[in-house]
């Protein structure tokens, strides 16, 4: 049975990824950091729709200590793929940004994913093939004012994926980044409708991305036939910025 763990599964893109993978026959660990009720509800709904697959809600705070991360990974059933779709941002000038918020952004978006990757590696390389996908951002390649810490965290993911992919390629473990542009999710809705309309006008394809525009590429990277693509960042931006 193919099983993937989707971190950040209760977010807009994370939910779309779960739907896409479930429809493709994957069993899933459905992760949340806070919203247990949402994770549980997603798992229940998918279990009813796909009774031959397993859907297990799980909770982990990405600010957890190292021993908690180790215990979390050790208690899981075997997985073939790990998708890191969690993430936070904070719209602010660096000079005005709370230093604790900078720590939080870097830990949730970059540092804890790196730690978890190392913990998952011994389990993943036991498979005939395995996959890791990180959700990056177009701002990882073209930094955004007011989101300097966020942009740095996403740029760091790209660099890490490129380097780490070379360490594990011979074990048939691929490591890639899917980097969305502007997506129609709650994270971007805080910018307000006028700002989002301005952004939409800058996107060559003329619209914001929907979750399914991103989840398609995650599903493709998890496919057994994608084994020659590793260490790459795929920008799904509608031609915007990159």
UniProtKB/TrEMBL annotation:
Pfam families: adh_short (PF00106). InterPro entries: NAD(P)-bd_dom_sf, Sc_DH/Rdtase_CS, SDR, SDR_fam. Coiled coil: none annotated. Belongs to the short-chain dehydrogenases/reductases (SDR) family. This is 3-oxoacyl-ACP reductase.
